[in-house]
Specification:
10 strands; Rossmann fold; about 220 residues; alpha/beta; binds adenosine-5'-diphosphate
Length: about 220
């Protein structure tokens, strides 16, 4: 049986500044099953980041709703959204998701502790799969771009999320460093995770089961 993990229904998101209104999302629906990798592509300003923020419950749509693993994540009190996100959603955004005053290993450990489910064996296995075992004690400021992207992914996967959301996760990487990151994302999908990646990368589009094209806040 196919298990739908992400249900986004008719999302609308408008930004207003004085007389100006930007319609960032205009009725976007997206359903993603466990094991599926979806690439969201489209020109700059198409609404990709806005969509991902709504899917993560980091932003609320002005219309429509988002459900993750059967639970509504949109339009709920902040604390409830944060708890759902910690348990169900791994988020990897361009701005980075590492806490500067914790080491790489400390970051992975910290997000696990947020859910009260610590699993040191799993921490080791993700760091190993991402080639970060030797960098476990490094501080975020000491990492190269590729290492930081991999460490960000380790954090996003720390709680074995039902849904993994990534905004240009390999934007800073060359093809050689991109490959292991994409391999791990694909493997994670195989572990019953639904994956949504906003990206321009050809390698990401190749990896995806489905490519969703976004333009002017609508799917094509
Ligand atoms: P993409 O990620 O595809 O580049 P975005 O989701 O960042 O697109 O932006 C979609 C549209 O919404 C753009 O026109 C952008 O300028 C606008 N936008 C995004 N965030 C804000 C904001 N916080 N305030 C006002 N406009 C915004």
């Amino acid at each position: 049986m196919d298990l739908v993990i992400l249900e986004a229904e008719e999302l609308y998101r408008f930004y207003r500044a004085g007389e100006e209104e930007t319609r960032a999302l205009r009725g976007v629906s997206l359903h993603v099953q466990a094991g599926e990798v979806i690439a969201v592509s489209g020109p700059s300003g198409a609404g990709k980041s806005t969509l991902l923020a709504c899917l993560a419950g980091l932003d609320d749509p002005d219309g429509g709703m988002v459900r993750v693993d059967g639970q509504r994540i949109s339009h709920r009190p902040e604390a409830e959204k944060a708890a759902l996100r910690a348990r169900l959603v791994g988020v990897l955004f361009q701005s980075g998701n590492l806490i500067e005053h914790l080491t790489v290993g400390g970051n992975v450990d910290f997000v696990q502790r947020l859910t009260g489910r610590r699993d040191v064996a799993w921490q080791r296995s993700i760091l190993d799969a991402l080639g970060l075992t030797k960098r476990e004690r490094a501080w975020p400021s000491q990492l190269s771009g590729g290492e930081a992207a991999r460490a960000g992914l380790a954090v996003a996967l720390a709680n074995r999320p039902a849904l993994l959301l990534a905004d240009e996760p390999t934007g800073e990487l060359d093809e050689q460093t991109e490959a292991p990151v994409l391999r791990l994302i694909r493997e994670q999908a195989g572990e019953h995770t639904a994956v949504v990646i906003a990206s321009h990368s050809r390698a990401v589009r190749r990896l995806a089961d489905r490519v969703v094209e976004l333009k002017d806040g609508r799917t094509l």
